[in-house]
Amino acid sequence: MSIAVPTWGAGRGGTRFCKFPIPGEPTNIHEKLEDCAVVHQLSRITPRVSPHFPWDKVRDYKALREEAAAFGLGFDAVNSNTFEDQPGQKISYRNGSLSSTDPGARRQAIEHNIECIEIGEKLGSKAITVWIGDGTNFPGQQDLTDSLDRYLESAARIYAALPDNWLMLIEHKLYEPAFYSTVIADWGTSILAAQELGDKAKCLIDLGHHAPNTNIEQIVARLHRFGKLGGFHFNDSKYGDDDLDTGSINPHQLFLVFNELVEAKRNPRASFDPAYMIDQSHNVTDPIESLIASAEAIAAAYAKALLVDRQALHQAQIDNDAMTAFQTLRAAYRTDVTPIVAMARWQAGGAVDALAAYRASGWRARKAPERRSASAGIA
Ligand code: LRH
Ligand code: MN
Q: Are 237 and 247 in contact (CB under 8 A)?
């Protein structure tokens, strides 16, 4: 298994209240690639980065692809951005983007997504992730069906621009930035849109995009059952879309997600090749440390899921022996896989203890003098 790290996760994240940069954090895509290379050098399971446009915009994408390749990195799904207005943008997305009532805003958003596909082709990506914040804050603000129909019409235009071997990953989210209704709010709307669009449209599950206590592992099973499981944005959350480190709050849920993925791999529907990507906001840690720890948490969850005695589990399910079924899962979950994951990492040329190796490297302090991050001067 291998995971893609988000370019936007290489820098410190923040909230609407404040962002606290750290000395030596990356300030552009080139420095972000360097830091993503450090994560892969030590963890050996993050060989790809997922870029976001226009945040990672450059003049020469061929050169950027070569720059990443020199670091042993490739590019995973590109991410479009029609949830912010860019300086000099003709039409604001304040009333939505792909579902806006304004045909000009829809056209602008469609053209941006098609531009992201063209950039992705130069970078060697094979998918575009389309998340839109479109929605409402008041009952009655928009017709709930017309807004979805406008989205579907726009998404079909983006779908039509997909190269043959590309995927369009639809990312649902229950709320935020809209707080009454969201056009693509849940997996149900996402799978119906993906079925409406065609075989190259699949659904992406961001673990933080659900109501508290949602059974996300069942969503994994459902999307796979209908051949629409396209990928993941791994993170963790306690309340909302907190974008906390993967496995840091609810490691058991992460295990149960991978348990479904191991079952899915045994029963492939359509093509089973979900994209594993991290999508986090590192507000209080060194981003490299959080990416290393999150990659480890994902590898550990997968290793534990591989340890499940599937024959015993399936027999207990047939026998309706709930306790044996649960204890079969729990036995795998209780297994400490840290040594086997460390051995696999070491055999792949990585560090036995990646976090300790990173700290010992003094990387961040070494980078601070050459990276004039916004934190400069603030103790
Ligand atoms: C939306 C989201 C989406 C990204 C953004 C950075 O909450 O998860 O995947 O585009 O975060
Ligand atoms: Mn996401």
A: no
Measure the CA–CA gap between 253 and 140, rounded to whole angstroms.
36
Q: Could you tell me the distance, in angstroms and rounded to a whole number, from the CA of residue 281 to the centre of ligand 1? A: 10
Q: Give the pLDDT score at 267.
A: 87
Q: Which ligand is closest to the CA of 132, given by its number?
A: 1
Mean pLDDT of 284-296: 98
Q: What is the pLDDT of residues 150-191, one digit of tens each?
A: 999 999 999 999 999 999 999 999 999 999 999 999 999 999
Q: Quick one: which ligand is closest to 206's CA?
A: 2
> Exposed, middle or buried by CB within 10 Å (0-12, 13-18, 19+), for 91?
middle
Q: How far is CA 178 from CA 25, 90, 95, 331, in A?
A: 31, 22, 11, 42
Q: Looking at this protein, which amino acid is placed at residue 336? A: D
Write the Ramachandran bin of 367: left for phi over 0, alpha for psi from -120 to 50, otherwise beta: alpha
338, 206, 164, 48 alpha-carbon torsion, rounded to 10° = -40
- pLDDT band of residue 272 (cuts 50, 70, 90) is confident
On the 0-12 / 13-18 / 19+ scale of CB atoms within 10 A, 145 is: exposed
Which residue is closest in CA terms to ligand 1's atom 3? 131
User: What is the structure's pLDDT at 191?
Assistant: 98
**Cβ neighbours, 10 Å, residue 76:** 28
Report the distance separating Cα 346 and Cα 353, nearest Å: 9
Atom of ligand 1 nearest to the CA of 79: 10
Q: Say how many Å lie between the CA of residue 107 and the centre of ligand 1.
A: 21
Three-state DSSP class for residue 235:
coil
Amino acid identity, position 315: Q
pTM for the model: 0.97
Residues near ligand 1 (Cβ within 6 A): 8, 79, 131, 171, 173, 206, 233, 241, 279
User: What is the position in ligand 1's atom list of the atom closest to the CA of 83?
Assistant: 10
Query: CA distances (Å), 181 to each of 173, 178, 359, in order?
Result: 10, 6, 44
Token reading at 48: 């790809």
Q: Rounded to the nearest whole angstrom, what is the distance from the C-alpha of residue 18 to the centroid of ligand 1? A: 18
* Neighbouring residues of 148: CB distance < 8 A, sequence distance ≥ 6: 99, 183, 189, 193
Burial of 315 from C-beta contacts in 10 A (0-12 / 13-18 / 19+): middle
User: Which ligand has the nearest atom to the CA of 205?
Assistant: 2
